[in-house]
Amino acid sequence: MTQENAQTEKKPLTFADWKAALLQCRRCSLCETRTQAVAGEYREHPVIFMLGEAPGGREDQEGRPFCGQAGGILDDFLRLAELKREEVYISNVVKCRPTRPSKSGIYGNYANRKPTPAEIQTCSPWLELELRLLRPRLLVTLGGVPLSYVVGKNAAVGQYHGKAFVWEKYNLPVYPLYHPAALIYDASKKMAYENDVQNLGRMCKELFT
Ligand code: URA
C-alpha cells in the first residue's frame, strides 16, 4: 500500500470515536452550562437500547445516564423484568443537561427542564450515529421525549405505553414505557408501569433466549 493510500483509507468509526467526539461537542448552548456531555453506558453490542430524555443534575456531574433518583427506579424495573443493567445499553435523546436558572437547584444554580425541539434536533446526529453503531434489536423508550422522537410527532405515552411497534427507519422494534421519573410525581402509574415492565421481560425472554 502506498503512503498516500494508507492516509486516505478510512478506518470505520468505533463507539470510542463516537464518545470522544461527543465529549467535545459544542453544537448548542447546553455546552455552556453542562459539566460534561453524557454518553450512553454499558453493553457495546446491546440487544436492548433504553432511551431516556436528557441527563439530570446528578448525571451531568457523574457523566453516567440514569444514576440519580430516576435511575434508582429504572434499576427496580430492570430487576422486575429480570434484566441486568449490564445487559442493556442506556442513553438519552439529548446528551447534555438542559437547565433553567433556579435558586433552589441542588446541583448548582440550575434546575432541570425538558429539552426544547431545537435542542433535540441539534443533538439528533449523535443519537442517529449511536443507533447505527450499536444496532440494538429492541429500543425501549422512557417517556414522551424519546417516544415523540421515534414517532416523529408529539406522542402521548399514555396512548402508546406497553404496545410494541416497529420504527420503520431502522426496522427496529420499539417498546414504549413511561419515564421512570413519572412515578416520583404520579404513583397511580405504578401498576401500569409494573405491568408493562413484566411484559417487556417476557417479550425479551421469548425473543432473545
Ligand atoms: N432522566 C433521563 O431521562 N435521563 C437520565 O439520564 C436521567 C434522568
pLDDT average, as an integer?
92
Instruction: Give me the strand/helix succession.
Output: HHHEEHHEEEHEHHEEHH
Count of β-strands: 8
Small-molecule components bound: uracil
Main structural class: alpha/beta
Number of helices: 10
Q: What order do the strands of the largest sheet run in, or round the barrel if closed? A: 1-3-2-6-8-7
Computed Rg:
18 Å
Shape: globular
Percent range of helical residues:
40-55%
Spans of at least 5 consecutive residues with low confidence: none
Strand content: 15-25%
Distance between the termini: 45 Å
Biggest beta sheet attributes: 6 strands, mixed
What does this entry look like structurally?
With 209 residues, this protein is of the alpha/beta class. Helix content is 43%, strand content 15%. The protein is built from ten helices and eight strands. The strands form two sheets. The chain has a six-stranded mixed sheet with strand order 1-3-2-6-8-7, sandwiched between helices. A hairpin with an 8-residue loop joins strand 4 and strand 5. The chain is globular. The termini are far apart. 37% of the residues are buried. The mean pLDDT is 92. The structure holds uracil (URA). The site of uracil (URA) has 12 residues, from loops.
